[in-house]
Amino acid sequence: YTNIPVINFTKGMLIANDKFWQSEYIASHGYRVPKTVFVSSKDEINASLKEFENYPLIIKNQYGSEGIGVAIVESERSARSVMGSILVNNNGVIVQKYLPVQGGQDLRVYVVGPRAVKGIIRTAAKNDFRANVALGGKKKSFKPDKLLSQMAIDIANLIGLEIATVDFMYHKGKYYFIEINKNPGTKNDIK
After folding, report:
1. Cα–Cα dist 135/97, whole Å
2. CB 12 within 8 A of CB 25
3. CA-to-CA distance for 110 and 8, rounded, in angstroms?
4. What is the Cα–Cα distance from 64 to 94, expressed in whole angstroms?
5. Of 34, 70, 145, 171, which sits most exposed with the smallest number of CB within 10 A?
6. How confident is residue 190, by pLDDT bands cut at 50, 70 and 90?
């Protein structure tokens, strides 16, 4: 209403802000997402853990960035403890199936408008599972293949973001959506 140009639209910003909403939204459009369960109260912990057959599991805060609030748990006892800690702050908990990937790597694709302009392979720091540069991980550039590029563009369009990064895991020969970032840091990555 003020004639100020807007790059990323409100709907996209809202969806991208919520890690569960974005996963559910992307999965509903046919993209692979690790099995995910949302927990909103301590009363739901038992039922949520019964959804998974084995450990480890990934437990995440519903909101957040830079790998903060993301844990890998090796047992039901650890899962209960981590979930309880997150729920104390009235945040939702996301429980996901752990998908092992080579070298603790994920693939980040930068999308600007209708183009995938760059790819970054992020590798977890030693003794960590989170492929996050802010937590000491390493990164290197790569050229995403046509399939990965198109998936990133399509996902950014579905969410409603013109400038975004879309993160994937490559597990057993298939790409899995991890998350979309509405306000990607581009320092030293894109001119």
Report:
1. 22
2. no
3. 14
4. 12
5. 145
6. low
